[in-house]
Amino acid sequence: MEDSRIALPIGTTLDRYIKKKQDEFQFATGELSQLLRDIALAGKVVNREINKAGLINIIGAIGTQNVQGEDQQKLDVLANIRFTRALSKGGEACAVISEEDDEIVDLNNNGRYVIAIDPLDGSSNIDVNVSIGTIFSVFRRVTPVGSPIQETDVLQKGAEQVAAGYLLYGSSTMLVYTTGHGVNGFTYEPSLGEYFLSHPDMSIPEDGKVYSINEGSYTSFPKPVKEYIEFCKQNNFSARYIGSLVADFHRNLLKGGIYIYPQTAKDPNGKLRLMYECNALAFIIEQAGGLASTGRQRVLDIDPKELHERVPFFVGSKNMVEKAISLFK
Ligand code: AHM
Ligand code: MG
């Protein structure tokens, strides 16, 4: 899947990797490369904050300010500030939409790119020391550079993404991303402050034996989803559900499996947000040889109507997602 022109060795630093890949494209301006570097850098800062999450309450208990004199913030709010600040300093992004902001955040009318981001996903796991993640999508704006940002710049189909990725803050921290030429994973080495290529040209097994779904909501699942779960049980598949989308997705990407967040009584369109949760992972999974669907439609083909739109989400190994889709017919 990876562009065959340059295969870089394991251990290549992220900076070097981005630079080499940029050199492959004759007319590349370097702006997308800089954007990826900005996101990677903000990821390091967020990683540092997350690693001392357990201490934040202790420090917070003796005062509402941290050592830098800033007010204590919840980690998801803090992550939003870190990423937005990094993108605004870089100047390549004209706007950001985020799970943490109701409206589009205008950054720089001269920027070419729109970013959709979930700065810290897996909110229920933040306070309990379980893996969480950041998810991002990058689009090229459609209106002329220099003009004010419009909703049409933001509400683009997932198929228009020029890059997408996630950071996983787990037993080690990883950045996994694609620019549409395969998927590559980089592991962060905190003592050196560098990301190194650890998972080149990632591909998901066509089949898997793991299904990830919150079965607590089983009674309100649509019939095809109940049937699919039955199918998994009949075949002795394993149930694995962390409740952090990035962590569940990452495990299934490496080992094979399917993640499902379907329609439920509580969330009639599913819980996950198209623009900054599903699109990015759909782009990555397709680049890795898997599939992403709502059960009835390819995720990357959905024409978004709202910034915070929700969709049912089936993502993972090709044969598993195809089987689930077949039950909707
Ligand atoms: P969040 O954006 O509020 O963190 O919600 C998204 C998360 C996903 O990471 C996870 O897969 C899912 O919600 C878990 O939801 P539930 O607790 O309903 O199973
Ligand atoms: Mg989220």
Describe the protein.
The chain has 329 residues and is of the alpha+beta class. Helices cover 33% and strands 21% of the residues. It has 10 helices and 13 strands. The chain has an 8-stranded mixed sheet with strand order 2-1-3-4-5-6-7-8, sandwiched between helices. Strands 10-9-11-13-12 form a 5-stranded mixed sheet, with helices on both faces. α7 links the parallel β9 and β10. α2 runs antiparallel to α4. 46% of the residues are buried. The mean pLDDT is 91. Bound molecules: 2,5-anhydro-1,6-di-O-phosphono-D-mannitol and magnesium ion. The site of magnesium ion has 4 residues, from β3.
Produce a short descriptive summary.
By secondary structure, the chain is an alpha+beta fold.
Please outline the helices and strands:
Elements: H1 14-23, H2 31-51, H3 53-61, H4 75-90, E1 93-98, E2 105-106, E3 113-121, H5 123-126, E4 132-140, H6 151-154, E5 161-169, E6 173-178, E7 183-189, E8 194-199, E9 210-212, H7 223-234, E10 238-239, H8 245-255, E11 258-261, H9 274-287, E12 291-293, E13 313-316, H10 318-326
Helix pairs in contact: 2-4
The structure holds 2,5-anhydro-1,6-di-O-phosphono-D-mannitol (AHM) and magnesium ion.
The site of 2,5-anhydro-1,6-di-O-phosphono-D-mannitol has 11 residues, from β3 and α5.
Q: Which compounds are bound in this model?
A: 2,5-anhydro-1,6-di-O-phosphono-D-mannitol, magnesium ion
* Low-pLDDT stretches: none
What is the topology, as strand order, of the major beta sheet? 2-1-3-4-5-6-7-8
Count of strand segments:
13
Q: How big a fraction of the residues is strand? A: 15-25%
Give the SSE string.
Answer: HHHHEEEHEHEEEEEHEHEHEEH
